[in-house]
From TrEMBL:
It comes from the Bacteria. Residues 3-60 form the HTH lysR-type domain. The keyword Transcription regulation applies. GO terms for cellular component: protein-DNA complex. Belongs to the LysR transcriptional regulatory family. This is LysR family transcriptional regulator. PROSITE patterns: HTH_LYSR. Keywords: DNA-binding, Transcription, Transcription regulation. Gene3D superfamilies: Periplasmic binding protein-like II, Winged helix-like DNA-binding domain superfamily/Winged helix DNA-binding domain. One of its GO terms (molecular function) is DNA binding. It comes from Kocuria soli. PANTHER family: HCA OPERON TRANSCRIPTIONAL ACTIVATOR HCAR (PTHR30346:SF0), TRANSCRIPTIONAL DUAL REGULATOR HCAR-RELATED (PTHR30346). SUPFAM superfamilies: Periplasmic binding protein-like II (SSF53850), Winged helix' DNA-binding domain (SSF46785).
Length: 294
């Protein structure tokens, strides 16, 4: 049985507040997301931890038994994290990337100038590894580009910038010579998507026209480099933020603007708990750099 420190923190917050709305606000989650996560914890433990009615939330006997044990585990983990962030050494910030972009490079350049004592570590995490790495504290924050989707509720999300979308396709594709296209013109295309069918289905729903037939997908890519290679081989097309051209353009590939696609939003995600002061400073700097460049 595997339990995470985040599950225990969320249990303890609800146990203290005895109110899902107030607990969710503290954790920067939606009440429904927090409720589902507590239910998942109860299923994992095979024990009911709370009695819930339309008016009240109460700890069960099992919940009362778990509370001091969970508190001891969380306090021990906090001690480890405090030790790991010992101020006697330089600050260390691990930044995860789903895709690279000019906006991210501008933020990192400003951070290197304005936070010179920080040791920076950049990790390319791809489409499927970014959220997991943040949840498991393998990185301190992640930059994620999402199209037509709400922010992931498990984390604190800071929207940085929006941009239009472009169709990524082979230079010999029937639409490659166009100055722009519309979503309805993509009916019948095969889309190169992530190697997770559930995630691919959500993405396709967001980026394809509602009145077209269900699109075909090729769910094999783990990162955007793989997407570009597959599109360049003529195996399918993809939809990305327009700024992808600046980083991923190469011979044989075209980026054609899509007139009516949903906007792509780049978020900076942080864990909702136990963030260091340098990470908080970096988040503020990222937002400030974005606003100055707007």
């Amino acid at each position: 049985m595997n339990l995470t420190i985040h599950q225990l923190r969320r249990f303890l917050t609800v146990a203290q507040e005895l109110h899902f709305g107030r607990a969710a606000q503290q954790l920067h989650l939606s009440p429904s997301s927090l409720s589902e996560q507590i239910s998942a914890l109860e299923r994992r433990l095979s024990r009911n931890l709370f009695r819930r009615t339309s008016r009240t939330v109460e700890l069960t006997d099992h919940g009362r038994e778990l509370a001091p044990q969970a508190r001891a585990v969380v306090e021990a983990m906090d001690q480890v994290l405090t030790w790991a962030r010992d101020d006697s050494g330089p600050a260390h910030i691990r930044v995860g990337l789903m895709v690279s972009s000019p906006g991210f490079r501008a933020i990192l350049a400003a951070a290197a100038r304005e936070m010179p004592d920080v040791h920076w570590e950049i990790r390319q995490l791809g489409f499927l590894g970014a959220y997991k790495a943040l949840a498991q504290a393998e990185v301190d924050c992640i930059f994620v580009s999402e199209i037509g989707e709400a922010p992931v509720p498990e984390f604190t999300s800071i929207p940085l910038w929006e941009e239009g979308c472009a169709l990524v396709l082979h230079e010999q594709h029937r639409l490659a010579g166009r100055s722009s296209v519309r979503l309805a013109e993509l009916a019948g295309e095969t889309f190169v998507t992530v190697a997770d069918e559930a995630a691919a289905a959500r993405w396709l729903t967001a980026v394809t026209a509602a009145d077209t037939a269900e699109p075909r997908s090729l769910p094999v890519a783990h990162n955007f480099e793989e997407v570009v290679e597959l599109c360049g081989a003529g195996l399918g097309v993809n939809i990305a933020g327009e700024s992808a051209r600046a980083t991923y353009d190469r011979p044989g590939i075209r980026f054609v603007p899509i007139q009516d696609a949903p906007r792509a939003t780049t978020y900076l995600y942080l864990r909702g708990d136990n963030r260091s002061a340098p990470v908080e400073d970096f988040a503020r700097l990222a937002l400030d750099v974005t606003r100055r460049g707007a």
